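In this supplementary section we document a worked example of the pipeline. Step one takes a protein sequence of length 264 as its only input; no multiple sequence alignment statistics are reported here. Step two produces a three-dimensional model, which step three serialises into structure tokens for compact storage. The input and output of this example are shown verbatim.
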Amino acid sequence: MNLRITHGMVEHWNPSSKERHHYMYFFQQKNDHISHQRNDDYLPHKNKDDYLCVDDGGSVIGLDGKVVGLVNKHRKKSFVPSCILVKCLDLWGKFGCIPRLHLGMRFTSIELLDPIHVEQLWRMYKIENGLIVQEVSKESHAEKLGICLGDVIERFNGECISTTVELENMLLGRCWDHLDQGNPLNVDIDVSVQVFHIEERLRRTINLTVNVSDSGEIVISRTYAIIATEGTSASVHSSQNVADDPCLRRRPLTWEELGELYTK
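The serialised model returned by step three reads:
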């Protein structure tokens, strides 16, 4: 077996809708003489001078010589940070499983958006941290409580959230507490979530029922039909209605509608 050593820069990215919360990514330069040429087609958002690190797996070591993660063979060359790995190993060692909470949502971190978008959110809503809801699973409790595309999750169990890696740490920590109390897998528990509804400009704290499972989470997309009679427009629930009835289903926004809200 040959030892292969490459080096590059770690970049914090928002995971795509098909990726896990805890992924992180790294890149390196083409002029690195110890590296191998790679296909730039994998980098739709990067310059041609950058390309993916070449490796089939192994540890990621920081400049101080400490292991900071483990490479996951993935087309974007993601790696799992050490903080997640340690918690997974501890869970496996004590309970023989690695469970997580199935929230029924996918997220984008405000912190990792482009500076213009971050400044716009602060100027319009006075929000500078949190996770933007990218997708809500069909028939999930989150959907029934009115959480929609574009809403911002600001706190989880009372703690502020900035990135999806932080969220994953919180989910694993909550699972540890659940199992440590002698509770089983595949049961529903309640967690506290602070949500800011972008469309209604309403902030509220809700109790979200989630499942504790060691299976992979599947977020099921829903297709909504927006129906309006002649001379009228499709209705949207007001802030007052959502506040009075926390289980009232709201019409989810499209990304285009969300963009209009940001630029009003």
